[in-house]
Amino acid sequence: MLESPNQTTPESSDGATISRPALPAAGDIVVPFEGACGIAEAGAIRARLLAALSTPDAKRVVVDCRAVTEADLTFLQILLAARAGGQDAGRPVVLAAPASGALASALISGGFAHPDGPEQGWLNPFWSGH
Question: Measured at the alpha carbon of residue 23, what is the angle toward residues 89 and 41, in degrees to the nearest 5?
């Protein structure tokens, strides 16, 4: 059974919920990133996101950061700029899955996590895959 994007479903006996990744749907453009995503790769990252946002029949851009091994503030800024550009163009930009690994570490270092830690939630719901 297919679930709607970012649906949360009870997964454990203690009632905890797990956020499901944004499932690609018709009209989605998936932009996967892997390895290092920092200032040295900024031009290529920006170009890939702009190309996805410029695709005429794209309904939504799904950014997959699960294979990112290094991320810095530059990457975060590019992702936020793409999100803003997507909103302006009527093409939402979403994460394929909630921030984790290197992306989560960059968010914590950059002050994007709740002051009591990321387990309390991200300061911007974009990072939780919504």
Answer: 60
Q: What are the structural domains of the chain?
A: 27-128 (3.30.750.24)
Cβ–Cβ < 8 Å for 65, 71? yes
CB count in 10 Å sphere of residue 130: 14
If you count them, how many residues does the chain have?
Answer: 130
- CA atoms 61, 120, 106, 77: torsion sign: positive
How does pLDDT run along the chain (130 residues), one tens digit per residue?
222 333 333 333 344 333 444 567 888 999 999 999 999 999 999 999 999 999 999 999 999 999 999 999 999 999 999 999 999 999 999 999 999 999 999 998 898 887 676 677 788 888 988 6
Residue of 98, 27, 29 lying closest to 65 (CA atoms): 98
Query: How many whole angstroms separate alpha carbon 92 and alpha carbon 106?
Result: 23
Q: How far is CA 40 from the centre of its chain?
A: 20
